[in-house]
Amino acid sequence: MADRKYKINTNCVHGGYKAGPAEPQTPPIAQSTTFRYYDNQDVADWFNLDTFNCAYTRLGNPTVGYLEEKMALLEGGSAAVAASAGMSAMLITILALCEKGDNFVASQSVYGGTYNLFDHTFEKMGIECRFIDQDAPAEEIEKSIDDRTRAIFAESLGNPALTILDFEKFSKIAKKAQVPLVVDNTLASPVLCRPIEHGADIVIHSTTKYCDGHANCVGGMVIESGEFDWFATDKYPGMTQPDESYHGMIYGEKYKELKCAFSVKLRAQMLRDLGCAMSPMNAYLTWQGLQTLPLRMARHSENALKMAQFLSRHPKVDWVQYPGLKEDKYYELGQKYMPDGQSGVLSFGVKGGKEAGEKLLSALELTSIAVHVGDVRTCVLHPASSTHRQMTEEQQIEAGIKPELIRLSVGIEDIDDIIRDFEDGLAAI
């Protein structure tokens, strides 16, 4: 029923599942590890990857499949693969693109957990991440790319630096280097930004955030555009050469027409070997959350802009970063790539620095101190001492994390109540 001829609001409600006569209106939860067959050839076909049926939930599940279909639809991709968390989605993507001795380029303004994965964990695997300033000229960024570079990674809306990616610039760089542009679209959501429309080849989500939206479940998603030419160079043997663990099958060849070669590799190889599959219950909860995503993103963005305007006028606030503010460095890029709203996350610093900020957080009543964003509830966090504490102060500053920075994820409560809570909190400083 739902496809690209419908607008995204409609696809959020109807995409990914259509009930048949006398069937459940919402997708059933297939809470089963395994699925029964009656003909052994059907099982053989499944192990040969000749069918997309389900046999074992680690490699595919009907409920998870409904969510994957919906996410691919919303992002304008050709296929999607769900993972147990956003970090898992990041892990399997890079491992599918890079081998030992390879490198990839990434914006230094990424989420702290992503930075640790890229800078430390991948280093142990022999994969190098080269961090760059995403606002640098293209010529400077290109200096980090060589013949062993296999991807360029950035966030559409940086967490919590609130940088907005210049898609036009990065798409040109990636095409020139003949590597995929991988974009984490978690904070923007497909309602506010669709990276594939702006030149991205692979999109990643932590569905834990706005996609779920209610702090119910952890999950991740990888969506491919289906347009990247894996055979244009010899950089991707995992896509263009026989996989001996699947009888010499070549992913890029077998699934070229279906435009799902990368997704099949993720499912057949990465989920098979790493086991980071999304649970059926989490897929069901995320599917439900997506139905109200457009309504929530509109309210989050509206409330965040009003909150940013309030804080920017407050005498005890030193600075505010939110791309919806006309004076913000990323305002123009925000209007270009996220014209319908700049999401619900902002950052600010209070006069008095870190100590004053800690007093503010302790004085808040309605607002939760939580290691989370994208919730219907308003939440705050001090990244330098929490999500980014593993980084040096120099690395934090390079990533846009000042010592006094407070990350505020504005919920969908009445904006007057949120503002009143911060008025009282700031008065306590």
Strand content: 5-15%
Low-confidence region ranges: none
What multimeric state do the chains show?
single chain
DSSP helix fraction: 25-40%
Q: Number of helix segments? A: 17
If you compute it from the alpha carbons, what radius of gyration comes out, rounded to the nearest whole angstrom? 22 Å
Molecular structure report:
With 429 residues, this protein is α/β, with parallel strands linked by helices. Helices cover 38% and strands 13% of the residues. It has 17 helices and twelve strands. It has helices at residues 8-14, 40-47, 62-75, 86-97, 112-124, 138-142, 167-177, 189-192, 237-240, 251-254, 261-274, 280-290, 293-313, 331-337, 353-363, 393-398, 415-427; strands at 79-83, 103-107, 128-132, 149-155, 181-184, 202-206, 220-224, 317-321, 345-350, 368-369, 379-381, 406-409. Helix 5 links the parallel strand 2 (103-107) and strand 3 (128-132). Helix 3 (62-75) runs parallel beside helix 12 (280-290) and helix 4 packs across helix 11.
Give the SSE map:
Blueprint: H1 8-14, H2 40-47, H3 62-75, E1 79-83, H4 86-97, E2 103-107, H5 112-124, E3 128-132, H6 138-142, E4 149-155, H7 167-177, E5 181-184, H8 189-192, E6 202-206, E7 220-224, H9 237-240, H10 251-254, H11 261-274, H12 280-290, H13 293-313, E8 317-321, H14 331-337, E9 345-350, H15 353-363, E10 368-369, E11 379-381, H16 393-398, E12 406-409, H17 415-427
Parallel strand pairs: 2-3, 2-4, 4-5, 5-6, 10-11
Antiparallel strand pairs: 1-7, 6-7, 8-9, 9-12, 11-12
